[in-house]
Design goal:
The protein is mainly β. The chain has one domain: Immunoglobulin-like (Sandwich), CATH 2.60.40.10. It contains one helix and nine strands, in the order E-E-E-E-E-E-E-H-E-E. The strands form two sheets. Strands 1, 2, 4, 5, 8 and 9 form a six-stranded mixed sheet that branches. Strand 8 and strand 9 form a beta hairpin.
């Protein structure tokens, strides 16, 4: 089962967060050495339009990944709630599984020049 986390993004700002992945059965850091990680954000689960996360390994030994959504992407998203998930593909076993999911909220700016 994937970890559930809500994310809050200031519209028009670069967003990044570090997530540590754990093995469900042992609670040890997950072996992410053979994983390709990717994820998307959509307004609803059935929306045709998707926005891609940038997902990279931050620390291999600690099983930390960095999930980013650049300002160039989120500035074009309407404020409000979205759904997202992050998947991992194992290049050795061919297995694909969800590691993170939740709600992402785009927060608009109030103050203007």
């Amino acid at each position: 089962m994937a970890t559930y986390a809500n994310l809050f993004v200031d519209q028009g700002s670069d967003f990044a967060t570090i997530v540590t992945l754990q093995d469900e059965s042992t609670s040890d850091p997950l072996d992410i050495s053979d994983l390709t990680l990717y994820g998307q954000v959509r307004r609803t689960y059935t929306s045709a339009t998707a926005f891609d996360f940038i997902v990279a390994v931050n620390d291999l030994e600690k099983a930390e990944i960095k999930v980013s959504l650049p300002s160039s992407t989120n500035e074009n998203m309407k404020p409000g709630r979205y759904v997202y998930d992050i998947f991992a593909d194992n290049s050795i076993t061919g297995e694909s599984f969800k590691v993170l999911q939740g709600i992402l909220e785009i927060i608009p700016s109030v103050t203007r020049d």
